[in-house]
Amino acid sequence: MDYNTNFIVDEESVKESKRKLRQRFVAGILTGALISSFVIMAVFIFARPAMGLAPALNQVQNSSGDELLNETTVNKIHSLEDVIDTYFYQTDVDKLKEADGIYRGLMDSLEDPYSVYYTEEELDDLLNDTAGIYYGIGAYVSIDTEMNMPRISGVMPGTPAERAALQTDDIIYEVDGESTSGLELEEVVSKIKGPEGTTVHITILRGSKREEISVDVERSAVEVPTVTTKFLGDDEEIGYLQITEFDEITTQQFEKGMADLRQKDIKGLILDLRSNPGGSLQAVCDIARQLLPAGNIVYTIDRDGNREDYTCDGKNEIDIPVVVLVNQYSASASEILSGALKDYGIAKLVGVKTYGKGIVQRIFDLKDGTAVKLTVSTYYTPNGTNIHGIGIEPDVEIEFDADAYAEDKTDNQLEKAVEVMRDMLDN
Questions:
Q1: To the nearest 10°, the Cα dihedral for 203, 206, 209, 214?
Q2: Higher-pLDDT residue of 11, 107
Q3: CA angle 406, 412, 415 (to 5 degrees)
Q4: Which residue, among 138, 140, 137, 134, has the nearest Cα to 170 in the 3D structure?
Q5: Is 332 known to be catalytic?
Q6: Which of 169, 170, 343, 365 is an active site residue?
Q7: Which end of the chain has less neighbouring CB within 10 Å, N or C?
Q8: Is position 373 annotated as part of the catalytic site?
Q9: 269: nearest Cα among 334, 340, 319, 344
Q10: For residues 173 and 303, what is the distance between their CA atoms, to the nearest angstrom?
Q11: Which pLDDT tens digit goes with each residue over 304-313?
Q12: How far apart are CA 384 and CA 394, in angstroms?
């Protein structure tokens, strides 16, 4: 899951929240992972402390007015604050950061990497990301599962990252001289992002030999092109469409891309979802409705057994063969689309097993400009498959040759997808 972090966001809720953020607070519930038909769950309300931690702790209550933290816990936190205030070797302790640390710790106690506390600044950045515009270098970043370090999972055309010759699968070793080892993905992304016109110094490791390369990249405003297209084959009979993530702007870009491809009367479609971390449920369902037959796209079940179905009427079912490229970084919404295409027998999957993120999150507004993202349910493919922690197996397995790509941009997985497509067209 690239940063954009793999939860699914309701587009209209995000737009409304951004409007209210301009008034300096977020009012209402943002729906992430599931759209607005979900029953709004009760949320915890934390008042940011003006002085010390005591005001916040004394106000931690649930919707029934019962204390969420027992007296022993509250007293222990007060004692810890007293020890810090009395003995910590620095006197300029930021009380707001102390409070944020408590909130983050509460979310960390769930032991769920997808349940996260957001400060007001972090929430603002998150909402800007889902709109598809941000200030940075124009590269998608995810965590490399083997090295446990950030990697570039895609480079946007015409961006500073492309001009600096950064490449897919480059490992981000240092940012401005600071090692990325041990840092959370959000921390790395925040260090790479910055004001337009400023420069970030990035050290990368490239290829299987991990060649160390350092580059200076000037940040700029980046409007994320989430969809790219091209024609493949000697007679351009195969259309290629890549979706890098599912944002507000993706559905419109997909429609335009498909229209451009169909104008040349393509005989087959290669849909590239490699390293796609997910995104908007609304976007992925809208796109699925232009490809699938009548039936379920995906359904979700919450902890109480409540089921929600997201369906397609089948009026726009695609009438040409489809091959879907996936890899170990294809997650969340991209697994919804690839899983549905596979379940209906519309497409063959080529690449390696997908990430396996089959749980969904929602963002809850805490009424003070901050928010939490919380895992609320599990999703299933049309055939009832729970892919969480398992992933989706490709029909044709082939590992990506990073050395060949670094040498001359040879994409062996795409070449295999073209080969599979030609077999489908011949038969």
A1: -30
A2: 107
A3: 135
A4: 140
A5: yes
A6: 343
A7: C
A8: no
A9: 319
A10: 40
A11: 999 999 999 9
A12: 18
What backbone phi and psi angles, to 5 degrees, belong to 57? Answer: -65, -35
Structure tokens at 170: 């480059």
- Walk me through the domains of the chain, giving residue ranges and CATH numbers: 11-129 (no CATH), 133-223 (2.30.42.10), 227-361+377-426 (3.90.226.10)
Say what angle helices 333-343 and 281-288 make with each other, to 10 degrees.
20
- Class of residue 225 by CB neighbours under 10 A (exposed 0-12, middle 13-18, buried 19+): middle
**For the stretch 94-106, what's the b/e string if a residue is b when 16 or more beta carbons lie within 10 angstroms of its beta carbon?**
ebeebbbebbeeb
Any catalytic annotation for residue 216?
A: no
Q: Dump pLDDT digits (tens) for 251-261.
A: 999 999 999 99
Q: Which of 389, 161, 140 is nearest to 246 (CA)?
A: 140
Distance from C-alpha of 226 to C-alpha of 310, rounded to nearest angstrom = 23
Find tokens 């990249």 and name the residue. 217
Indicate which residue of 191, 357, 373, 416 is catalytic: 357
The whole-angstrom separation of Cα 318 and Cα 328 is 26
Q: Angle 139-256-394 (CA atoms, 0-180°, nearest 5)?
A: 60
> Per the residue annotation, which of 332, 334, 338, 377 is the catalytic one?
332
Which pair of tokens denotes residue 227?
């969809």
